[in-house]
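Note to self: keep these together.
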Amino acid sequence: MTLACLGAGCTTTGEVRQSIGVETVSSDKALAFPPPGGPSIVNVVERRQAKDVEQTISLFTSSSVPGQNFLKVQFLGTTGSNPGLGSRPFDTISENKVAREMAAEIPGVRLARSASFVQNGYGPFGYASGQSRSGDTCLYAWQQVKAGFAPPQEQRNFGTVQVRIRLCDAHATERQLLSTVYGYTIAGHFTGAALNPFGAPRGAESVLGKPGEMVYPDATSYRTAPISIGYQNRPTVMRPAAIIRRPVGAPSQPQAAPVLPPMIGPKVPLPDGPADPLPTGGATGPTSMIVQPSPTNTASNIVVPLPDCNAEAVISAVCR
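Structure:
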């Protein structure tokens, strides 16, 4: 017998085989997906136990807090193509259980549970958030998707989906992390209609197609004041006059007469009457003269004055 046992031991190959029920699947076979623009999927680990399926969908993580961001989803109640009862009894979400999960998944960060009632497309959910010592924002959310209770003999809506979301980020805010909980999508379903945990499809609104009920394209009310159609005069905008500021105590300087630009074309004869000469500027400039117009200001006797051409400096530059 001893020799037989030794012979049997020598023939053992010692081959190591992979455990059945745990495997890595591709991202397109995930049973849940983060929202568009949300954290990207790193990998998906699937575990199967009797009639239950669990997937841990690891998400991109940018944080100094130990751990990996994930979206975990559990389908309890069926496996494969044959519907049936789950291998584990129905388990409700308790406060102590959630506290243990948060301490294990986000160590070293004190999370405060939100007391506000929140709800996404799959129903109510709970979450807790907080910040680490380095300033990273962390969020842990939990949700149970179940249509409701029914008589046991019917086995209606017995399937349950448990969801857990762990998010920590060095730059995102609590509101940005919470948008992932609102926008994630469950892509899996039960093959048996009797185990559907999502409930019956929601019907159309009762006001659709009903006379007398207004349906607007968005939440903004369109019952506003009537819009005036046509052209309206624009209001006149009064511009403030320019104010010239002088230093306190500085004497006011006399303003020099403006110099008109040279005129091109035939010369217009000067009107009759004497001209009042201006005082001579001496070394500062040539003598200027202003021609007085006719006493009667009508359209027929308005004459354009010529530029002053009495000084030698102006004659060489203007009157040639």
